[in-house]
Specification:
Layout lengths: L1 E6 L6 H4 L2 H8 L4 E6 L12 E2 L9 E2 L1 H12 L7 E10 L2 H8 L3 E6 L7 H6 L3 E4 L9 H12 L11 H4 L17 E2 L2 E2 L9 H19 L1 H4 L6 H20 L1
Parallel strand pairs: 1-2, 1-6, 5-6, 5-7
Antiparallel strand pairs: 3-4, 8-9
Helix pairs in contact: 4-6
Bound molecules: S-adenosylmethionine.
């Protein structure tokens, strides 16, 4: 898959994309990442990329010309792939959106700075807008790295265990079960006996129940959309009843 990233700060990507899983995906040609400095597409002497907002008010706005020049210069006009603006006003980024984007052979990610980009970029160049959460960052670079990372790890061949993404939190609407590794006892805290039993059926049942319990405790909003068996629904109803009984007795 190919990513073209348009930013005023291409250098901030390297510490992340040059290590670990993303670096290996690049080395193996599974992810090609091209970084483009929007400033390189300015034509004026001072390489200006921002200007004051019409209507007044504080802050600066990213000018449309260098952004259009950069994106169209690299991707053609109109661009041949989705052009995604990272913005706190975009659709929320979720695992489902990551899966959707991982189907694309090519994505462009546009990082804003200052007060954001001129509205005409949003209206006439961008094809999708993504927010990584309800908070405001100083720039779109971190958001682009979040999208890049979540999408890249879903590409076939990137992870050592091809089944890992399907078992992760949010893959099927639940949080994942807890993990343990050696030593079996650390500071007196033991790894649950079932995980050391070698009984794969019991382990799978324990993990599923832990996953349900965690989701019920921490993110009950997710349960409404999760696919649960009648037995699992019954189990959750029992936990609910227990909780209500405890609340009455307290
Ligand atoms: N004034 C803008 C607003 O209120 O919508 C926020 C601008 S923000 C300081 C600068 C840039 O950071 C944005 O253009 C966007 O690219 C990026 N950004 C900030 N928060 C983000 C978020 N939650 N998700 C994605 N990108 C974000």
């Amino acid at each position: 898959m190919r990513f073209d990233i348009f930013t005023l700060f291409p250098e901030v990507f390297h510490p992340y994309i040059d290590v670990s899983i993303i670096a290996r995906a690049r080395e193996r040609g599974l992810a090609e990442i091209y970084l483009h400095n929007i400033r390189d597409w300015t034509t004026d002497k001072h390489h200006v990329v921002d200007d004051e907002p019409y209507g007044g008010g504080g802050g600066m706005v990213m000018k449309p010309e260098p952004i259009f020049k950069a994106v169209e210069g690299v991707l053609g006009s109109p661009p041949t792939c989705p052009v995604i603006l990272l913005t706190p006003q975009g659709r929320p980024f979720t695992q489902a959106v990551a899966r959707e984007l991982a189907q694309q052979p090519h994505l462009a990610l546009l990082c804003g700075r200052y007060e954001g980009v001129d509205e005409r970029v949003r209206q006439h160049l961008v094809t999708d807008e993504i927010s990584i959460g309800d908070y405001v960052l100083t720039g779109g670079e971190l958001a682009a790295m979040v999208v890049l990372d979540a999408v890249t790890r879903l590409l076939p061949g990137v992870l050592g265990d091809p089944d890992a993404p399907a078992k992760d939190s949010h893959a099927a609407g639940l949080l994942e079960h807890p993990h343990y590794t050696r030593p079996p006892v650390f500071r007196g805290w033991e790894v649950p006996e079932v995980l050391r039993s070698g009984d794969h059926g019991r382990i799978a049942r324990w993990r599923r129940e832990q996953s349900l319990r965690r989701t019920w405790e921490r993110r009950p909003d997710l349960l409404a959309k999760a696919e649960l068996t009648p037995e699992e629904q019954e189990l959750i109803a029992r936990w609910e009843a227990e909780r209500q009984r405890e609340a009455r007795e307290a």
